[in-house]
Design brief:
Strand content: 15-25%
CATH topology of the largest domain: Rossmann fold
CATH superfamily of the largest domain: CoaB-like
Number of helices: 15
Strand order of the largest sheet: 13-12-9-14-17-18-20-21
Bound molecules: cytidine-5'-triphosphate
Largest sheet: 8 strands, mixed
Shape: elongated
Helix content: 25-40%
Radius of gyration: 25 Å
Length: 397
């Protein structure tokens, strides 16, 4: 499910991060959302309504007593047709007012009169964020069902460093997308492996593969969006952990196996996306191997544990989803692998076009047969995969 056509009221409060709200309005518009903007008086000191009006193509609202609304009920009219109110940046003052249910300007009135969800992206100085009053307001708002996007830690406009930076616009859009995904895995615990593994030859050399981790990270994100509590055991990749996902970083297949064994207990679902090396070097060297008169080193290999097969064979095993990256005869190999590993579902793809790429074309194999997902971005493929096994699980109950 995308955010296309979603009607969003973007609220801006006073803060230097208001300049990022211009990019946010644009990004939401590009994602297909219908964006209306309401600004507090303080927000208009940081960025002009004209900027937001030009970016959204809509009149911007700043005043509770706007004569454009015939019955002077703009707070009702503006919030009624919206699917989400998103306040970014949200100041400490806004959080305090929203926590108290105050409604002394247009934005807080819209927030109080809403029927739709409220998402808040805080932006403030680290001391203001850490202040017990703000933390108390945060807890109150969370308990009221308000969804928080950030804040992040980092350098602040005031020169200090710490929590309180507003999330970047792309990350806020990702949070909005997450909010609108069906919560098909609510209450479930999901364990995902991702990325390649690295098998040591000597202290400076490894054997690895071309897995980028993108598919596994997309699966972890999609599972979290669907409401699951997600642990991601990841081989060495250059990706940020998806928001709200607990990552355990490993390098070798053996380390991945140990991390999975430690985390799998209590998991409802195990999704094995990692490109685990089948072999490790049996005679790896403690010291760097030197060139020896043109003689190539003779490496000996021994098989790594098959993590997926081990998990699937456990008593009380979680629902297991395997991946099959094949260079040829995808369907035959995938069907055979599903049976060999003893798992209910395998997602297969052609390794040459999938590994490292941003797009993928998965085909799912289960006891009912073959389900091609079409080609598309890995996150879309991951969301379809999650929807598929969530339906399988729900039917099994
Ligand atoms: N897998 C695993 N542990 C391994 C090898 C593979 O958990 N040591 C998992 C992968 O994460 C994937 C599935 O098993 O979900 C299939 O992996 P793949 O490499 O395609 O298959 P292999 O079992 O290695 O078989 P082959 O190399 O013969 O294709």
């Amino acid at each position: 499910m995308t955010v296309k056509g979603k009607r969003i009221l973007l609220g801006l409060t006073g803060g230097i991060a208001a300049y990022k709200a211009a990019e946010l309005a644009r990004a939401l518009g590009r994602a297909g959302c219908d964006v209306r903007v309401a600004m507090t008086e303080a927000a208009t000191r940081f960025i002009t309504p004209v900027t937001l009006q030009a970016l959204t193509g809509q009149a911007v609202w700043t005043d509770l007593w706007d004569p454009r609304v015939a019955d002077n009920m703009s707070h009702i009219e503006l919030s009624r047709d919206r699917d989400l109110i998103l306040v970014a940046p949200a100041s400490a003052d806004f959080m305090a007012k929203a926590a108290q249910g105050l409604a002394d300007d247009l934005l807080t009135t819209l927030v109080l009169a809403r029927r739709c969800p409220l998402m808040v992206a805080p932006a403030m100085n680290v001391e203001m964020w850490d202040n017990p009053a703000t933390q108390r307001n945060l807890r109150t708002l969370r308990a009221d069902g308000v969804v928080f996007a950030g804040p992040a830690a980092g350098d602040q406009a005031c020169g200090e460093t710490g929590m309180g930076r507003m999330l970047e616009p792309a990350a806020i859009v990702a949070e909005v997308e997450a909010l609108f995904q069906p919560k098909s895995l609510a209450g479930k615990r999901v364990l995902v492996t991702a990325g390649p593994t690295e098998e040591r030859i000597d202290p400076v050399r490894v054997i690895t593969n071309t897995s980028s981790g993108k598919m596994g990270y997309a699966v972890a994100r999609a599972a979290r969006e669907a409401g699951a509590e997600v642990t991601l055991v990841s081989g060495p990749v250059a990706l940020e952990a998806p928001a709200g996902v607990a990552r355990v970083s490993v390098r070798s297949a053996q380390q991945m196996f140990d991390a999975v064994k430690a985390a799998v207990k209590g998991s409802d679902i195990f999704i094995s996306v990692a490109a685990v090396a089948d072999w490790k070097v049996k005679n790896s060297s403690r010291q760097k191997i030197k060139k020896a008169n043109g003689r190539a080193p003779a490496l000996q290999f021994e098989e790594n544990p098959d993590i997926l097969a081990w998990v699937a064979a456990q008593k009380d095993a979680p629902f297991c989803v395997g991946f099959a990256a094949e260079s040829e005869k995808v369907e035959a190999h995938a069907r055979a692998k599903r049976l060999k590993k003893g798992v209910p579902l395998i997602a297969a793809n052609l390794a040459q076009t999938a590994m490292g790429a941003d797009d993928n074309a998965l085909t799912l194999y289960d006891d009912r047969g073959r389900h091609p997902l079409g080609r598309g971005p890995k996150l879309d493929q991951a969301r379809k995969l999650v929807a598929h096994f969530a339906a399988m699980l729900n039917k099994a109950r």
